[in-house]
Amino acid sequence: MLREKGRLREGDVRVFWTSPGYSHCCFTAHRELEEAVAQQITATFTAMRTDNPDHREVLELEGCKGFVPGTAAGYDLLETAAEEEGLI
To answer: Which single residue of 12, 41, 60, 75 has CA 20 to 30 Å from 25?
Structure first.
């Protein structure tokens, strides 16, 4: 986008570090949500494809090419900090 507007030239930016993959923008649900319902929601989102016009619109609005199931891995530090601050 910035290159197209002439605000950024080739070589102005470089990658200096790449993080490991992580789950961000995860959907959350109440702990009492039935597992079968949670699985159906996950299956619905992960089945979305860009070659389906209805799916493509949702994916474009979300700024992605597809959904993958999220994981709780990597949230230990955040959970500890929230506990220390009395947030949870």
So the answer is: 12
Q: Which residue range forms the structural domain that includes residue 49?
A: 36-69
- The encoded tokens of residue 6 equal 């002439």
Taking the C-alpha atoms of residue 44 and residue 66, their distance in angstroms, rounded to an integer, is: 11
Look at residues 76, 71, 64 and name the one whose alpha carbon lies nearest to residue 23: 71
Q: Tell me the per-residue pLDDT of 65-78, one tens digit each, with 9 for 90 and over.
A: 999 988 878 788 88
CA distance 33 to 66: 24
Distance CA 37, CA 58 (A): 21
Is the whole-model pTM more than 0.70?
A: no
